[in-house]
Amino acid sequence: MNSSKNLLKVENLSKVFPNGDREKVVFSGINIDLAEGESISIAGQSGCGKTTLLLIMAGLTAPTGGTLSLNGKIYSNPSSDIALVLQDYGLPPWKTVEDNIRLGALLQNIPVSDDEINDLKSHLKIEGLDHLYPHQLSGGQRQRVAIARILLLKPKLLLLDEPFAALDALTRERLQKLLLNIFRQRGLSFIIVTHDVEEASLLGERIMVMDSNGGGISAVIDNPGFLSEGYRDTPEFFERIKQLREVLKASD
Amino acid sequence: MPKYVSYIITSAVALSVWYAVSSQLGALLLPDPVSVLSLLLIEAGSAEYWAHVGASSWRIVAGMGLAFIIAVPFGLVVGSNPKLNKIVSPFISMSYPVPKIVLLPIILLLFGIGDLSKIILIMLIIFFQVFITSRDAARNINEEMILSFRSLGGNKLQYYRHIVLPASLPGIFTSMRLAAGTAVAVLFFVESISATHGLGLYIIDAWGRADYTSMYVGIVSMSLLGILLYEFFEILERKTCKWKHTQ
Ligand SMILES: Nc1ncnc2c1ncn2[C@@H]1O[C@H](COP(=O)(O)OP(=O)(O)OP(=O)(O)O)[C@@H](O)[C@H]1O
Ligand SMILES: [Mg+2]
């Protein structure tokens, strides 16, 4: 993927939180280069700063040091090219499925056609739910509504924070496949953050491991076969998981 | 069970209990419901009675309306801005427990003995309940929802419109319903002190003449006013917070 255009560049990023009268360094010296149409999974143990990193890349939290640029332009605020999906989906419970899907377009005043919405719904298999409220949906349906809502905005980069963690194994597998399909078809890029070694190995073209002691990225593992058919059942996949597990242990 | 059926049943039970108690106590202490309700029907034909109802309704609706219009936006803004909340909330905690009703003499001095002081006192007492509910609702909005909303491109004004207000409405309407009871009590108090019209005056006047049937007509009317307000906010809540009423 070295030939493709660079999309996101993270340079020397660090985040420090005040902690009483001392300071807590969550991470430092993080560098990430993400090409257009590339995916990265970031694995790390609980509390190592994965969510913090994602919120910074989404322009929602200011870093303590370092810079972010998208297509060569430095940014520090949310951008319509970057979409964020959080673990509990962030769907306002007072908006119906239809209104939730249209929310981003409404806020940014982007006109969308009914055809566009219907295509998206059928692709994500959330048809016929229009008038239901989020609490009337299953976890998997809610997650797909959250995905529909951001795809409608045609982002270039998807940032996902453990998006499938609350789902049962089969639903999770189905949504992981769906994510890869969208990724392939739409040629967008994504960064997924997860503490699940299988998920990291399944979804990332590169797997980055985050250090638990404020260091930053302690290892990068290439995962070239991740898009191949039936990757989940190949020896390569199991090898990757084993490798990742060992690196994670070492980074603790 | 439809709402009106439960109202009919509740009223029937209340009237039976009333009837039973009044036959025990005697008509002097508690006139029976039939004579009170028939007098109420007769009164309903007199312009004078409606002038009392009108005066009371205006005061309570204006007082509660003002409290709503001021307390809700103020509460939502304070609850959504931690820095502002730090400045404002100590003043609220300090003044909330002060019984506002003791300010009546000052309010009468400042605003005269007309409608304005009555409306202001009702407003002042309701204000705190509604403000505190609105502020706390705005403060407790799920952090992930706020972040998702901002990343979808929502600005501050849109945040109030699409997130803060709908999140807070159920609580606000509950507080308005509770406030209806408080407002009727305050209304009775201010109208019994000074008024040329009003159901409070109507009750006190009948009491002074030892006309207990009329007194109960006033009590029933004032209660109906409270019930109407309570129901009004319930209906408003059901219309505006549909998501709360789905399974
Ligand atoms: N607003 C904040 N103020 C102070 N400390 C914070 C704040 N947000 C996060 N932290 C701290 O930063 C560290 C990293 O938090 P973060 O949520 O990014 O971890 P994570 O890797 O996403 O964990 P998990 O896998 O459990 O979701 C934690 O120690 C946390 O306590
Ligand atoms: Mg996290």
What is the CA–CA distance across the termini of chain B? 17 Å
- Helix/sheet category of chain A: alpha/beta
As laid out across the biggest beta sheet of chain A, the strand order is 6-7-8-3-9-10
The CATH architecture of chain B would be Orthogonal Bundle
Low-confidence stretches of chain A: none
Main sheet makeup of chain B: none
Average per-residue pLDDT of chain B, rounded, comes to 93
Average residue pLDDT of chain A: 91
Compact overview of the structure:
The complex is a heterodimer of chains A (252) and B (247). Chain A is built from 7 helices and 10 strands.
What layout of secondary structure does this protein have?
The complex is a heterodimer of chains A (252) and B (247).
Chain A: E1 6-19, E2 22-35, E3 39-43, H1 50-57, E4 65-70, E5 73-74, E6 82-85, H2 97-107, H3 114-123, H4 139-151, E7 157-161, H5 169-186, E8 189-194, H6 197-203, E9 206-210, E10 217-222, H7 235-250
Helix pairs in contact in A: 2-4, 6-7
Chain B: H1 3-25, H2 33-43, H3 47-80, H4 82-95, H5 104-111, H6 115-139, H7 143-151, H8 156-193, H9 199-208, H10 212-240
Helix pairs in contact in B: 2-10, 3-4, 3-6, 3-8, 3-9, 5-6, 6-8, 8-9, 8-10, 9-10
Bound molecules: adenosine-5'-triphosphate (ATP) and magnesium ion.
Report on this model:
The complex is a heterodimer of chains A (252) and B (247). Chain A is of the alpha/beta class and 252 residues long. Chain A has seven helices and ten strands. Chain A has helices spanning 50-57, 97-107, 114-123, 139-151, 169-186, 197-203, 235-250; strands at 6-19, 22-35, 39-43, 65-70, 73-74, 82-85, 157-161, 189-194, 206-210, 217-222. Chain A has a six-stranded mixed beta sheet with strand order 6-7-8-3-9-10, with helices on both faces. A four-stranded antiparallel beta sheet of chain A has the order 2-1-4-5, with helices on one face. In chain A, helix 2 (97-107) runs parallel beside helix 4 and helix 6 packs across helix 7. With 247 residues, chain B is mainly α. Chain B has a single domain (33-241), classed as MetI-like fold (Orthogonal Bundle), CATH 1.10.3720.10. Helices cover 81% and strands 0% of the residues of chain B. Chain B contains ten helices and no strands. In chain B, helix 6 packs antiparallel against helix 8 (156-193). The longest helix of chain B has 38 residues, at 156-193. The mean pLDDT of chain B is 93. At the A-B interface, strand 6, helix 2 and helix 4 of A face helix 7 and helix 8 of B. Bound molecules: adenosine-5'-triphosphate and magnesium ion (MG). Adenosine-5'-triphosphate (ATP) binds next to helix 1 of chain A.
